[in-house]
Design brief:
The chain is of the alpha/beta class. The chain is globular and about 65 Å long. The termini are far apart. The structure holds 2-acetamido-2-deoxy-beta-D-glucopyranose (9 copies). One 2-acetamido-2-deoxy-beta-D-glucopyranose (NAG) binds next to α8. One 2-acetamido-2-deoxy-beta-D-glucopyranose (NAG) binds next to β14. InterPro entries: Diverse_PLD-related (IPR050874), PLDc_3 (IPR032803), PLipase_D/transphosphatidylase (IPR001736).
Length: about 475
C-alpha cells in the first residue's frame, strides 16, 4: 500500500483542513512563518537511519527496502491508564491498559527500540516511595533491561538536565548496553525535551502523554495510541527521534536548516493514506518546536489549528492545563492563538466546544480567570456552545505519592479528526519545548461495519470523562482555590 492508495475524498478533506489552518495561522499570528507551509518535495530517495551510531544494530538498507515493499497492515489501538481506585462506571468504554500494551510491544520487538521521554522514573525507590503500585513500572524496567540479551538495541533520548535526581533507570540500562543521549534543549531552544514516544523495529509506534514513570501506569490518568505494523509512519516518526539523537551528541548545535535526510514526506498536506485494519485512514505526525521541524514536518501548533479549523460540529479537548499566555517567561505574555481558534469555532461556525482541564494539588489558580472567560462566551440563545469543566482525581489514600493523582492526558477530538499530543496548552510548549502530535482521521468502513473510526472511540472516552462524577463545572465546587475532591 502506498500513499496513492488512499481514498481521494479523505485526502481532499485533509488538504482543506491544512488550508484553513494556514489562513488562521497567517491572520492570527505573524510569528508563525508561513514559509514552512510549502508543498513538500517528491521522494528524495531512500533514507536510512544508520546515523544513529555505528555500534547500534540497525536494519541495513536492503532490509529497509524490503520492508517498504512488504505490504504493511497498520493497526491502531488507543491505550490509557486510569488511576487506581478510580473505577470507571460499569459498562463505560475503555481503552487497552497502557502497561499491558507497553509490555506486549517490548515482547514484539525484534531489532531495535527507540524511546523518547521527558524523564525516567520507573521504580518506587527512584521517587523515595514504597508503594505496591510501582510494581508495573519495575516489571517494565526489567523487560527493557533484557532487550540487549535478546540482541535488540535500545536507544533512549531524554531531557537534560535530569529531572528526577535519584532515578537510576538509565544507569541500569546503560550498564546493560543501552545507548542514552541527554538532549540539552534548554541550551538549544530554551525549553525541555517533553516528547513521549517509542519506535520499535522501525515499524511499531507508541505515542501519548505518559513518561517512563511508574506512576503513569497506576497513579496518573494517561492517554495514548499504539500503531502496529506501520513502517512508513514509524520511520517518519523515527526522523523526529533522530533530531533528538543528533542534538544529544556532545557540543551539538541546532542545524539550520536540517539536512535533507531529516525531511518528512508525511504531513498535513500529504498525510499517509492507508487502510488500517481495513478502515480508510489518513494520518501524520506533527512536531514542536519549529526549530526541530525539518523541511516538510508540520508544526504541532499548526496541526492543532488545522484540527480545530476543520471542525464543523464539535471540538472536545482534554488538557492538563490551559493558559492563553506564556508560562515560563516573565512577565507572562498574552498568547491567544488556541483560545481564539476555539472562540472562532464556537461563534463563527456554531461548533460545540468542550474543554476538560485537569485540576490537582499543583494547579496554578491563575488559570481559572482564563477558563471563566472562555466559558462566559456560552450563549445557548445565540447557538454559541462553550463549556469548561475541571477534572479532579481524588487523592484518596495515595497522598504518599508525589506528583500523581492527576489527569495528564492531552488530546482533542472533532467529528472528523483525533489528535493525541504531548504538549500543555500554553505558548512555551509550542515555541521552545519539544513535543509531537498524532493527527488521525478514519472513515467508517462499509466492509467492516463493526470497526468504529478512531475519532469515534476517542469521543466516547472523552464523553465518559466529561460526564463522570470527577468532572465539575466552573460554577461548581472548584473555584480555583481547591482542587481536592470533596465527594
Ligand atoms: C542524516 O545523515 C546524517 C549524516 O549521515 C546522520 O547523522 C543522520 O542521523 C541522518 N538522519 C536521519 C534522519 O537518518
Ligand atoms: C544480532 O543482530 C544483528 C543485527 O540485527 C545480526 O546481524 C546478528 O546476526 C544478530 N545476532 C544474533 C545472535 O542473533
Ligand atoms: C535522593 O537521594 C538523597 C541522598 O541519598 C536523599 O537524601 C533524598 O531523600 C532522595 N530523594 C528522594 C526523592 O528519594
Ligand atoms: C515497603 O513496605 C512493605 C510493606 O508495606 C515492607 O514490608 C517493606 O519492608 C518496605 N520496604 C522498604 C524498603 O522500606
Ligand atoms: C504484524 O504483522 C505480522 C505479520 O507481518 C503479524 O504476524 C502480527 O500479528 C501483526 N501484529 C499486530 C499487532 O497486528
Ligand atoms: C504541564 O502543566 C503542569 C501544570 O498543570 C505541569 O506540572 C507540568 O510539568 C506541565 N508539563 C507536563 C509534564 O505535562
Ligand atoms: C440555532 O440553531 C437552530 C438549529 O440549528 C436554528 O433553528 C436557530 O435558528 C438558531 N438560532 C440562532 C439564534 O441562530
Ligand atoms: C488504599 O485503599 C484501598 C481501598 O480503597 C486499599 O485496598 C489499599 O490497601 C489502601 N492502601 C493503603 C496504602 O492504605
Ligand atoms: C480530564 C480527564 O481526562 N479526566 C478524567 C480523569 O480520569 C478519570 C478516571 O478515568 C476520568 O473519569 C476523568 O474524566
Amino acid at each position: 500500500m502506498n500513499a496513492k492508495a488512499g481514498p481521494p475524498e479523505v485526502r481532499g478533506a485533509l488538504a482543506l483542513l491544512c488550508l484553513s489552518a494556514v489562513t488562521l495561522t497567517y491572520v492570527l499570528w505573524q510569528v508563525l512563518s508561513p514559509s514552512t507551509w510549502g508543498h513538500v518535495r517528491p521522494e528524495e530517495g531512500p533514507t536510512t537511519s544508520r546515523g544513529l551510531g555505528s555500534s547500534l544494530a540497525w536494519a541495513p538498507l536492503e532490509g529497509e527496502a524490503r520492508r517498504h515493499q512488504q505490504s504493511d497492515s497498520c493497526r491502531l489501538v488507543l491505550v490509557e491508564s486510569i488511576p487506581q481506585d478510580l473505577p470507571p462506571a460499569p459498562g463505560s468504554p475503555s481503552a487497552q491498559p497502557l502497561a499491558q500494551a507497553w509490555l506486549q510491544l517490548l515482547d514484539a520487538a525484534r531489532e531495535s527500540v527507540h524511546v523518547a521521554s521527558f524523564y525516567w522514573s520507573l521504580t518506587g525507590p527512584d521517587t523515595g516511595v514504597n508503594d505496591s503500585s510501582s510494581h508495573l513500572g519495575e516489571a517494565l524496567l526489567r523487560k527493557l533491561q533484557q532487550l540487549p540479551d535478546r540482541n535488540i538495541s535500545l536507544a533512549v533520548a531524554t531531557s537534560a538536565p535530569t529531572l528526577v535526581q535519584n532515578a537510576t533507570d538509565l544507569q541500569v540500562l546503560v550498564a546493560r548496553g543501552a545507548q542514552v543521549r541527554h538532549v540539552p534543549m534548554g541550551r538549544l531552544t530554551g525549553g525541555v525535551l517533553h516528547s513521549k514516544f517509542w519506535v520499535v523495529d522501525g515499524r511499531h509506534i507508541y505515542v501519548g502523554s505518559a513518561n517512563m514513570d511508574w506512576r503513569s501506569l497506576t497513579q496518573v490518568k494517561e492517554l495514548g495510541a499504539i500503531i502496529y505494523n506501520c513502517s512508513r509512519l514509524a520511520q517518519d516518526l523515527d526522523k523526529t527521534f533522530q533530531t533528538y539523537w543528533v542534538l544529544g551528541a556532545p557540543r551539538a548545535v541546532l542545524p539550520k536548516p536540517w539536512p535533507r535526510n531529516f525531511s518528512s514526506h508525511i504531513n498535513c498536506f500529504q498525510p499517509l493514506q492507508d487502510y488500517f485494519d481495513g478502515v480508510p485512514t489518513t494520518v501524520y505526525f506533527s512536531a514542536s518546536p519549529p526549530a526541530l521541524c525539518p523541511h516538510g514536518r508540520t508544526r504541532d501548533l499548526d496541526a492543532l489549528l488545522a484540527v480545530m479549523g476543520g471542525a464543523r460540529e464539535f471540538i472536545y479537548a482534554s488538557v492538563m492545563e490551559y493558559f492563553p499566555t506564556t508560562r515560563f517567561s516573565h512577565p507572562a505574555r498574552y498568547w491567544p492563538v488556541l483560545d481564539t481558534a476555539l472562540r472562532v469555532a464556537a461563534v463563527s461556525r456554531g461548533v460545540r466546544v468542550r474543554l476538560l482541564v485537569s485540576c490537582w494539588l499543583n494547579t496554578d489558580p491563575s488559570m481559572f480567570p482564563y477558563l471563566r472567560s472562555l466559558q462566559a462566551l456560552s450563549n445557548p440563545a445565540a447557538n454559541v456552545s462553550v463549556d469548561v469543566k475541571v477534572f479532579i482525581v481524588p487523592v484518596r489514600n495515595h497522598s504518599n505519592i508525589p506528583f500523581s493523582r492527576v489527569n495528564h492526558s492531552k488530546f482533542m477530538v472533532t467529528e472528523k479528526t483525533a489528535y493525541i499530543g504531548t504538549s500543555n496548552w500554553s505558548e512555551d510548549y509550542f515555541s521552545s519545548t519539544s513535543g509531537v502530535g498524532l493527527v488521525v482521521s478514519q472513515r467508517a468502513s462499509s466492509t467492516q461495519p463493526g470497526a468504529a473510526p478512531v475519532q469515534g472511540q476517542l469521543r466516547q472516552l472523552f464523553e465518559r470523562d466529561w460526564s463522570s462524577r470527577y468532572a465539575v463545572g466552573l460554577d461548581g465546587q472548584a473555584q480555583g482555590q481547591d482542587c481536592v475532591w470533596q465527594g
